[in-house]
Backbone:
């Protein structure tokens, strides 16, 4: 019995102590403890590292990152009604100062239409449990109920729904916020800070935002960044990406994402239960990403784009030409260093402004860029594949002479209509019922005699011709470090067999196919970058170098990243194809004969580009090309290199539906004028001795 009394006494004492402690916690010191608890929600928040800069070959800054104010929302215990009120207040602040919030909601409230195709709209309505015939008002009412929106003003509802939709799509918590607005004004930032006590969970953070200093210039090379998509996030989340990150989408931004992206820092903070930061405990600084130095000459790039736009418009409207080609609306210019195969300029027209994509593209901008028949997002320099027409004839000449089917001085008598295959005619017969008479290779190139190339093409056959075509890098990716390059097509039995395998329709290679291929038609289809590579290799007397648009990749400490590391990351991204580099072993006699013919195109009366280059102070070797397109007017080409005696640059221009190859020659001339300093403008290029010195500044 005594043991029982002792036990009961002990339990009473323990119970009394417990009750006292509970009373102390909840009553005596309750307020103090609650205050401490509210202040001791310790969280880690990411400090976003700025992406690395992008420079041209002379150290001119093309792309950088600047600080911006972004609005983030952390999860709090506030109910749906309070949350809706907070979001409405936030939206009103942004609207007052001309700022905007993320709006990925599928309804365009301005035009009151669904931002999807008809089928997409039906599918979306069905996913909500609504009928396919549900009206926009039905959809809005669905979300009003879903989000417990008590506000009655339709204007207020249109502000709340997109923000709630963004939160639902991205998700958020007390430790992982969702970004609701980016790059807001300082006025909005200050107003949010002033009203912070009523905006639970809302914080304004300073984060870097991408800035393209070149405007529209070089946009197809540089690419753009944008909010990470759900698909990209699924792939990248294991690498530390979050749903609020931006990521390189196209161009250098995409290809070099792994290098340009910096290392994020971490802030350990104390936050109260309302989501407001009360103290910063410690910080790990972010590290800026690596900078990329391009081989691009920014001045030359700007000139190439200016010239390209000018001549597309001139040809389209017949300004300075004997006729207009109204369907001429796009084109490309590529400039390569002949000795190194470095890309000096890579222009595609029409173009776009990458700054418009940084915060996510609006519906209006989407319509402007992605539903535009002129395809401004399409990088024609590396993606557009066109028949080369007569610009292919120098290659046919090299293949014919090197394979021994004709000598450098041997002549072919142009009879107007060729007597084999489908009996094609020379252009001079078609236009004037005339002939060129006996022509050797140099003369054939000068006057672009189809008959000569029919004959040598027939003699050597398609297998030899396709072999030399591939040797010069045509019909395969050049390996330029920009995602999305097309391979093109080499006219060959191999390609015909692939077509047969694809659709089951039996095809036989015909003599007519060979004759057409020999003048740059048939299945031949190459990109401007491939054509520039071929001309640069030819100008370099058959010595083929690895093509590149990258000069260097440098860390924030000024240390160059190893080439092996760059290759291991980039080659897989661009799906690089094997190329044969080095000396193609083309005989000097062959090269001299072909060069002589190309020089006469620009430098002798009767040459197809003589009128353009006759007064040019530097000797140019070139070739015009008028290539039949699948529809509309012919595509217009000019390819060339200069100076003739010691080539430095190869320039290629193609204008879609430009009508005549000679129409593109003036564009190439102006680009060459810029390169050689004949444009009467002050040359402001600054030669940078050390990238390390530049990039650590």
Residues:
């Amino acid at each position: 019995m005594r043991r029982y009394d002792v036990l009961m006494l002990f339990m009473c004492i323990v119970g009394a102590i417990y009750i006292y402690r509970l009373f102390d916690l909840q009553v005596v010191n309750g307020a103090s403890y609650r205050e401490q608890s509210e202040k001791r929600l310790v969280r880690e928040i990411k400090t976003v590292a700025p992406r690395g800069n992008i420079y041209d070959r002379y150290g001119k800054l093309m792309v950088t990152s600047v600080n911006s104010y972004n609005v983030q929302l952390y999860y709090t215990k506030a109910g749906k009604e309070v949350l809706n009120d907070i979001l409405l207040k936030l939206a009103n602040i942004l609207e007052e100062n001309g700022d905007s919030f993320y709006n990925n909601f599928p309804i365009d409230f301005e035009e009151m239409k669904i931002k999807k195709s008809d089928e997409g709209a039906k599918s979306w309505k069905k996913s909500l449990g609504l009928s396919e015939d549900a009206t926009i008002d039905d959809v809005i009412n669905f979300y009003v109920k879903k989000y417990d929106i008590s506000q009655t003003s339709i204007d207020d509802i249109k502000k709340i729904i997109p923000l709630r939709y963004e939160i639902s799509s991205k998700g958020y918590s007390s430790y992982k916020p969702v970004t609701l607005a980016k790059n807001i004004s300082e006025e909005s930032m200050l107003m949010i800070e002033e009203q912070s006590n009523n905006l639970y969970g809302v914080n304004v953070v300073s984060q870097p935002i991408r800035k393209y200093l070149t405007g529209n210039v070089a946009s197809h090379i540089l690419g753009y960044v944008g909010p990470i998509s759900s698909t990209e996030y699924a792939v990248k989340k294991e690498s530390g990406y979050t749903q609020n990150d931006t990521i390189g989408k196209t161009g250098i931004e995409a290809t070099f994402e792994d290098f340009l992206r910096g290392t994020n820092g971490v802030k350990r903070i104390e936050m109260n239960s309302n989501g407001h930061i009360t103290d910063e405990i410690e910080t790990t600084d972010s590290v800026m990403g690596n900078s990329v130095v391009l081989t691009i000459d920014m001045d030359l790039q700007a000139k190439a784009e200016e010239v390209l736009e000018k001549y597309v418009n001139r040809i389209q409207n017949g300004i300075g030409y004997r006729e207009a080609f109204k369907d001429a609306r796009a084109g490309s210019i590529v400039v390569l260093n002949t000795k190194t195969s470095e890309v000096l300029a890579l222009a595609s027209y029409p173009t776009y402004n990458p700054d418009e994509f940084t915060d996510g593209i609006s519906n209006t901008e989407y319509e402007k860029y992605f539903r535009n028949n002129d395809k401004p997002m399409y990088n024609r320099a590396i993606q557009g594949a066109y028949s080369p027409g007569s610009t292919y004839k120098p290659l046919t000449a090299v293949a014919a002479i090197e394979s021994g089917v004709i000598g450098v001085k041997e002549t072919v008598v142009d009879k107007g209509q060729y007597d084999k295959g489908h009996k094609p005619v020379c252009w001079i017969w078609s236009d004037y019922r005339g002939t060129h008479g006996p022509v050797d290779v140099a003369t054939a190139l000068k006057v672009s005699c189809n008959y000569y190339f029919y004959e040598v093409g027939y003699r050597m056959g398609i297998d030899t011709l396709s072999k030399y075509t591939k040797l010069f890098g045509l019909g395969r990716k050049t390996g330029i470090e920009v995602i999305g390059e097309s391979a093109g097509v080499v006219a060959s039995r191999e390609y015909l067999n692939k077509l047969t395998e694809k659709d089951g329709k039996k095809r036989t290679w015909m003599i007519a196919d060979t004759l057409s291929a020999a003048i740059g038609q048939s299945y031949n289809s190459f990109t401007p970058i491939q054509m520039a590579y071929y001309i640069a290799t030819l100008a370099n007397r058959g010595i083929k170098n690895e093509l590149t648009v990258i000069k260097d990749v440098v860390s924030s400490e000024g240390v160059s990243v190893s080439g092996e590391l760059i290759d291991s990351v980039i080659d897989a991204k661009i799906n690089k194809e094997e190329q044969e580099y080095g000396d193609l072993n083309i005989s000097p006699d062959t090269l001299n004969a072909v060069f002589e013919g190309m020089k006469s195109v620009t430098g002798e009366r009767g040459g197809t580009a003589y009128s353009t280059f006759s007064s040019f102070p530097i000797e140019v070797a070139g070739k015009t090309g008028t290539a039949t397109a699948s529809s509309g007017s012919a595509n217009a080409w000019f390819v060339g290199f200069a100076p003739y005696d010691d080539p430095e640059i190869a320039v290629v221009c193609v204008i879609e539906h430009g009508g005549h190859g000679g129409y593109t020659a003036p564009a190439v001339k102006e680009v060459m004028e810029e390169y050689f300093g004949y444009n009467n403008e002050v040359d402001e290029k600054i030669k940078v001795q050390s990238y390390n010195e530049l990039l650590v500044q």
Remarks:
- The chain has two domains: 41-69+213-294, 298-676.
